[in-house]
Amino acid sequence: MSEVRADYGLAQSDDALKSATVISPLEIVKLVLPVYLLLVAGAVLRRTGLIRKEHDAGIMRVVFSVMFPCFILDKILGSSGLHSGSGVLWAIGLGGGMILVGILLGYGVARLIGLENGTGMRTFALSAGCQNYGYTAVPVVEIIWGSSALGLLFVHNVGVEIAIWSVGVMLLSGGRKFFWRALLNGPMIAVVVGLLLVALNVDQLVTGPARVAMSLTGVGAFPLAILLTGCSMVDMVGAERPCWKIIVGGAVTRLVLAPIAILCAAKYLPLPVGIRQVLVVQAAMPAGMTSIMLARIYGGRPGVAVQVVLATTVLSLLTLPWIITWGNQWIGLHPLIP
């Protein structure tokens, strides 16, 4: 995907917008289908024993600590959308803010379907309120908007991480502790370093063999991560007896109510185009698997989170193209067919 197309996606002229061919739901399905096929491939590789459970920890450690940070830094350096201080602040603020809105929506739906403290209400609120902002969102953003939008997505995710490791953990554990150490990870450090280099206007100087090596290291992060996500999802199938009120409630929260809230923010707030692009994709994302991990660590009900994640991931193949298409048309964004 060329940088020309990436830059074009962030700064389209009025004439280009008028003459652009608006992308259809079917075309979006074709564009994002490889992501879902990788999930299926991961499930098949797990079932056939080619990727065993004991492989997961080592692979994910390399992906999360080495490959993903290299990918992030490579995409942030030279990103035109990050030269605006207000844009960076908007991205971080909305990243955390929309997670909090999602959790509140999840709380409301949890009460409507009869969940209470001790029966999964808090886990439901977190899992339904927190979208997939990483391994699935990144390739979708790049496919639809190009590489330049990724820098803003990674900055947006700083706000998401802060909200999850503060409000999310306090919600599940019942405590008031902010887990700052959880934010000291490879991806977060890569974002901070990248933003510093951009702010100092020296990011364009990172070139040559070192930059190429960094790019080559990062390019495989998401195929591997998505494959392992597929492995993890097939492991979860059958682990918990399905509860239809949780499945339906989670789908309504994550795939109907949360998208409405996110798209309203994208339309009515005074945001740069790049952030609007990121929010449209975030609105279409299923629930993130982070909630399952947090529920296991901090005393939640992992089975509730598993049901929400599995249901919304499967249904998102149907809802994602429509949310992105309608969102683009309503907000006035015009992705082009590559």
Provide a compact summary of the structure.
It contains 15 helices and no strands. The chain has helices at 3-10, 14-19, 25-47, 53-76, 85-112, 121-129, 137-145, 148-173, 186-199, 208-218, 221-236, 244-268, 273-284, 290-297, 302-331.
Write up this protein.
This protein has 338 residues and is mostly helical. It has a single domain (28-47, 56-331), classed as Na+/H+ antiporter like fold (Up-down Bundle), CATH 1.20.1530. It contains 15 helices and no strands. The chain has helices at residues 3-10, 14-19, 25-47, 53-76, 85-112, 121-129, 137-145, 148-173, 186-199, 208-218, 221-236, 244-268, 273-284, 290-297, 302-331. The longest helix has 30 residues, at 302-331. The radius of gyration is 19 Å and the shape is globular. The termini are close together. Mean pLDDT is 85; it is low at 1-20.
What radius of gyration results from the CA coordinates?
Answer: 19 Å
| Whole-number mean pLDDT | 85
Pick out the low-confidence regions: 1-20
Structural class: mainly alpha
What is the β-strand count? 0
Total helical segments: 15
Total individual domains:
1
CATH architecture group name? Up-down Bundle
Note the overall shape. Answer: globular
End-to-end separation in angstroms reads: 8 Å
Largest sheet: none
Helix content: over 70%
Roughly what fraction of the amino acids lie in strands? under 5%
